[in-house]
Amino acid sequence: MHTVSVSGAVACHVCPVRYFMEQEIARGESPRSIVAKQIAAHFGGKLDSGAIWGEVQAVLPEAAEEHRTLLEEWLARCRATDWRSATETEVAIASARLGIHGVVDRIFADEPYFAIVRSSEAPAAGIYGTDRIRVACYAACMEDLLGVPVRAGMVEYVPSGAARLCVPQPRDRRAALRAIRMATEINAGAMPRKPVRAPCETCPLQEHCSFGGRRLSDLW
After folding, report:
1. In a domain, 216, yes or no
2. Closest CA to 58 of 47, 67, 69
3. 80: in domain
4. How many domains does the chain have?
5. Structure confidence by residue, pLDDT tens digits, 61-111
6. Alpha-carbon distance 150 to 144, whole Å?
7. Dist CA 22 CA 25 (whole Å)
8. Residue 155: inside a domain, yes or no?
């Protein structure tokens, strides 16, 4: 059975049309994400900038001075936070119940059982809506993995040195279910519809939307 990735479900929640059009685009991990995840790999231990920078270069050979600057800035903020040590990192998990799969960034021995690592600045308060949906999806996957209720997860905004507890609410789980259902339908051949509050102003595919949701390969 084909399942939807957690990142795909989140993308479909933001805009089904963009999710549809991006299916043929190979997306690699961004340099910001690589830096953030390499820092997070050392949470709970010594945050040695030289050692972590060496690992970033090993993962991202094209890493430039701008990425070293990011690393130093983020580390300075992260050193002010008491981080938990993970028992495992980057673990592939899935939920057969919901038909989703993904890779959770950090797993812990006790509650909250997992954390997702973000390369974005933390909001002034709380958790971004899209991150609440991510946590809802990963919580379901963790329940299937552990066989126990998983009601919350951590969101670690590395650039801000902030670790925030996220307890998904019913509305977050409903939004996740809608997004998974829509992504599943699109994967099966359905044509998406642009949502009423689509974030067109910030979408890199804005100029192509008037073509009715065709794939990028049909446009070029």
Report:
1. no
2. 67
3. yes
4. 1
5. 999 999 999 999 999 999 999 999 999 999 999 999 999 999 999 999 999
6. 9
7. 5
8. yes
Q: What is the DSSP letter of 86?
A: P
Here the CATH number for the domain that contains residue 34 is: 3.90.320.10
Per-residue confidence (pLDDT) for residue 211, from 0 to 100: 42
Alpha-carbon distances, residue 118 vs 3, 8, 142, 205 (angstroms): 23, 16, 19, 23
For residues 85 and 68, give the distance between their C-alpha atoms in angstroms, rounded to a whole number: 24
DSSP-derived 3-state class of residue 165: strand
Task: Say how far apart CA 59 and CA 194 lie, in whole Å.
Answer: 37
Report if residue 51 sits inside a domain. yes
SS3 content of the chain, % helix, strand, coil (to 5): 50, 15, 35
What is the C-alpha to C-alpha distance for residues 50 and 72, in angstroms, rounded to an integer?
10
In whole numbers, what is the pLDDT of the chain averaged over residues? 90
